Amino acid sequence: MKTYKPYHVILFLVAVLLILAPIVWFVPKEGWAIGDYKIRFLTFEKFSNPAKKVNKDITTFIADVDTVLVEKEAEPLFVDTLEKKVMGMPTGGKLNLESATHIAFSEAGLNRFHSFLTKLEGAAIGRKKLRILHYGDSQIEGDRMTAYIRQRVQEQFGGNGAGMIPAVNVYNTISFIQKVSSNFTRYTCFGGEKIKSKQYGIMNSVGRFTPEYLDSAERSKITAVKEAWIEIEPSKSAYSRTRNYNNVNMHYAGATKTCKMKVYHQGNLIREDSLIADGKHHVYQLDFPQNAGKLRFEFASAISPNILGFSLEGDLGVQVDNIAMRGSSGTFFGNIDQSLASKMYNELNVELIIMQFGGNSVPHFKDSSSVRNFTRYFKGQLQTIRRLKPSAAIVVIGPSDMSRFEDGMYLTYPLLPYCVDQMRKAAMEVEAGYYDLYSAMGGENSMPAWVAKGLAGNDYIHFSNRGASIASQLFYDAFSSEYAKWKTQ
């Protein structure tokens, strides 16, 4: 066996360094692309000046976020008024006059938001309903963030129920339980299977139990009746305001053949009816003298209508709808029937639209021009919303901090801060508000600290339920402080 002496080891190390030195010196920052693969190597700059891990301390400001909800379960579900017993009156939420964060507005955007606040304050008092739509990507799926914001808003300004829920739900959610027959298919405007009529409504998804037939001659040949069903009930894990509702409205469109429907309440048949088969948008309404509880809708038709969703509501106040679209960048409004969407916005009295996007685009940005291209297109979507509902206020919630694994550390995506700046600029230009979630949670490289405290998942992108509550409270603090300032003015 050969014996190695110390100088042998030294010579070996010197040889390795001589071989690697040219690579370290000449390697491009982005690495080498070989076919579909990318090979990266330590650059001279990183070799001579290695990055140091920065540990963000979020303990203090997290401790200052009050996420204790009112949850007044002991109060009666219905409140006596001069006219009748109603569900949805405010129970006295907590308004923060000061906020660690704020919503940025242009002067014109602030005027629009103040107009919304006037309507918001008068909704329950005037025995009216008002709607807030919360569109977003996977950061809000399962009613994450929206559920908490809804509870806060409804405590303070009135309202009950989860609002609009999809006909076919594919995400685990804390707010309701839904089951559907196996022949129901989900169609969306933002990915997966689509419908040619584009009758997605405001949820951007529909449920059908047969294929779509747009040709009248083809429709006439379809005669065999198919049956399907949908069950909905409150979830015990939902916030108190969400799990209590006494009005259930089913939105549908595209019914071209007789569709018989039976409705069961707590297992008992309470309705037997037919949907209107004129192809237009309609609402089938159910009102209950108590909490609605478990409902089952059974359908029988040769051709399915487009079930646009169900709205779970109280008698008055504010509805806050969670419209989550996994994988979406918020650039979907060109893929929906514009007249149908506008009609629903108006009929449902939509007065605030929250657009929480950007996270799905950040990992794919290659340079600053790709960021500007995205924000230019996103701005066009905001302008489309403005045309669909001119009176509604718009607030954009930008992406949170997101980390990628690089050189042994989780670091903020390089172009994320620039994306935040460009999205803020786009929001200002269309008279919308902008809430900087990235800065609110601590800014650059803050996500690892949230993960360490169990406030975000190990993907270094999505909040945990606890983290979502904190992020939502930070947003609501900014929201309520704007309301408080408006009141004093």
Layout of helices and strands:
Layout: H1 6-26, E1 32-34, E2 37-39, H2 44-48, H3 59-63, E3 79-80, E4 85-86, E5 103-104, H4 107-122, E6 129-136, H5 146-157, E7 163-165, E8 176-180, E9 185-188, E10 205-208, H6 216-221, E11 226-234, H7 240-243, E12 247-253, E13 260-265, E14 268-274, E15 282-287, E16 295-301, E17 306-313, E18 317-324, H8 338-347, E19 350-356, H9 368-388, E20 393-397, E21 403-406, E22 409-412, H10 416-429, E23 433-435, H11 437-440, H12 447-452, H13 465-488
Parallel strand pairs: 6-18, 6-19, 19-20, 20-23
Antiparallel strand pairs: 1-2, 3-4, 5-23, 7-17, 8-11, 9-10, 11-16, 12-15, 12-17, 13-14, 13-16, 21-22
What does this structure look like?
This protein has a 6-stranded mixed beta sheet, sandwiched between helices. The protein has a 5-stranded antiparallel beta sheet with strand order 8-11-16-13-14, with no helix packed on it. With 489 residues, it is an alpha+beta fold. The chain has helices spanning 6-26, 44-48, 59-63, 107-122, 146-157, 216-221, 240-243, 338-347, 368-388, 416-429, 437-440, 447-452, 465-488, and strands spanning 32-34, 37-39, 79-80, 85-86, 103-104, 129-136, 163-165, 176-180, 185-188, 205-208, 226-234, 247-253, 260-265, 268-274, 282-287, 295-301, 306-313, 317-324, 350-356, 393-397, 403-406, 409-412, 433-435. It has 3 domains: 6-48, no CATH class; 54-159 and 316-489, 3-Layer(aba) Sandwich (Rossmann fold); 164-314, Sandwich (Jelly Rolls), CATH 2.60.120. The termini are far apart. Helices cover 30% and strands 24% of the residues. Helix 5 (146-157) packs parallel to helix 13 and helix 9 packs parallel to helix 10 (416-429).
